[in-house]
Amino acid sequence: MATNYWQVVVLAIVFLSTVSAARVAPFSIIQKPDGAVNVFDNSKYGLLQISNGLALTPQMGWNSWNFFACNINETLIKETADALISTGLADLGYTYVNIDDCWESLTRDLKGQLVPDSKTFSSGIKALADYVHGKGLKLGIYSSAGVFTCQVRPGSLFHENDDAATWASWDVDYLKYDNCFNLGIKPIDRYPPMRDALNSTGRAIFYSLCEWGVDDPALWAGNVGNSWRTTDDINDTWESMTSIADLNDKWAAYAGPGGWNDPDMLEVGNGGMNYLEYRSHFSIWALMKAPLLIGCDVRNMTTETVEILSNKEVIAVNQDPLGIQGRKVTVSGTDGCLQVWAGPLTGNRFVVVLWNRCPEAGTIEVSWDTLGLESSTSVSIRDLWKHEDVVADAVASFGVLVDSHSCEMFVLTPKLSRFQA
Ligand SMILES: *[C@@H]1O[C@H](CO)[C@@H](O)[C@H](O)[C@H]1NC(C)=O
Ligand SMILES: *[C@@H]1O[C@H](CO)[C@@H](O)[C@H](O)[C@H]1NC(C)=O
Ligand SMILES: *[C@@H]1O[C@H](CO)[C@@H](O)[C@H](O)[C@H]1NC(C)=O
Ligand SMILES: *[C@@H]1O[C@H](CO)[C@@H](O)[C@H](O)[C@H]1NC(C)=O
């Protein structure tokens, strides 16, 4: 398919609004000045290129690495599945329970097949999948497109068909495919064989590429995987989180239903950032249509961690079916530390995050023209952290004072024009 659906929709809105704004679009989209950020731009996205039917919205769930690293076992995975249910997180959409590195035995068996570590996963992965499925959740697994995984367990390079068949026989639902011990072979040669191997199992298995952004996967992974890491690993610091957000932003026009940019898993709840910083992390990840994969110990979360991860209105932004990645649209202040991030949502709405990355509080303002709206458009504004409608009829712009390292997150709903009413 040469043109894609959303491109057509967006072009149609722009075209029709130019021709007869009042009758066709509920509000008009103005021409952007050259060089300005176009929040609708998804021109590099190809709809559902890998056609496994998955990832219509970004994946949500949990992954073992950020908190537990190699200290994992089947008891932990089961208790995590239990906790996703008992905390209500599963009901909010966090359904993938993803095992990262260290589930494998150090060697393949005599037939060359992968086997689970006999001490920590003694009941086997199939039994674990059955347990997780019994809770209405899905099970994810991990390997590397190399001769070893990063923790030096057997990798799947040149074993793609065998390993995909093994995982499918265990009823696995998701693969995170890492980049260690890759023999210097280019990612574009190492990642597609696993796509084909997964496909040939006949089981729909979510394919999450993790080549750390080294070969700009947004440029080629749309027809390879359901998500692709755009950066090196995140760590539980403000510096890491903010720098990764900026790196991921570059690829906004390439994401969409079926294939998402992945700025790595969440650190919310791991203790290295404060409440407001974690709120910023979660808000920006949601706006960027990033995978929402919890990286803390969900068996033992603070009230604040639960509050952040359970914000239904923020999750709804991430899971909005329009599937256009929000992006950084304007900056002001020292080194551009007062930032406006925004993107379109279904229902002709916009999400706006006013993000203060400065060391002191500051006022941040979004003006309608940066969203492509006529400044006379009347807009109602809902605050997604206060869970309140804050303004009924703003025109031209909207600004608030934002604490240092905090953000405020809003949904903007432009009103129907007078001509249409
Ligand atoms: C395999 O790929 C074909 C062609 O893209 C697609 O139609 C089919 O749904 C895929 N099957 C699975 C299980 O991913
Ligand atoms: C399983 O892993 C968890 C988390 O690291 C640990 O607390 C627990 O002791 C382990 N259980 C067994 C049986 O090894
Ligand atoms: C965390 O990430 C930052 C920024 O990417 C990096 O400078 C730092 O070395 C990392 N820290 C650790 C402990 O890996
Ligand atoms: C629960 O988390 C707190 C920190 O929030 C920590 O001090 C405590 O040791 C944890 N408890 C368990 C059982 O892991």
Report the sheet-strand fraction: 15-25%
CATH secondary-structure class of the largest domain: Alpha Beta
CATH superfamily of the largest domain: Aldolase class I
Q: Helix segment count?
A: 12
> What ligands are attached or bound here?
2-acetamido-2-deoxy-beta-D-glucopyranose
Helical/strand content category: alpha/beta
Q: Note the overall shape.
A: globular
Uncertain segments are: 1-26
Spell the H/E element sequence: HEHHEHEHEHHEEHEHEHHEEEEHEEEE
Largest sheet: 8 strands, parallel
Gap between N and C termini, in Å?
A: 37 Å
Proportion of residues in helical segments: 25-40%
Give the total of domains. Answer: 2
Order the strands across the largest sheet as they lie in space. Answer: 7-6-5-4-3-2-1-8
| CATH-defined architecture of the largest domain | Alpha-Beta Barrel
Number of strands: 16
CATH topology of the largest domain: TIM Barrel
Write down the overall mean pLDDT.
92
EC number: 3.2.1.22
Pfam families: Melibiase_2, Melibiase_C
Signal peptide: 1-21
Family: Belongs to the glycosyl hydrolase 27 family.
Summarize this structure briefly.
By secondary structure, the chain is an alpha/beta fold.
What does this structure look like?
The protein is α/β, with parallel strands linked by helices. The chain has 2 domains: 60-319, Aldolase class I (TIM Barrel, Alpha-Beta Barrel), CATH 3.20.20; 327-414, Sandwich (Immunoglobulin-like), CATH 2.60.40. The protein is 27% helix and 20% strand. The chain is globular. Residues 1-26 have low confidence and may be disordered. One 2-acetamido-2-deoxy-beta-D-glucopyranose binds at residues 300, 302.
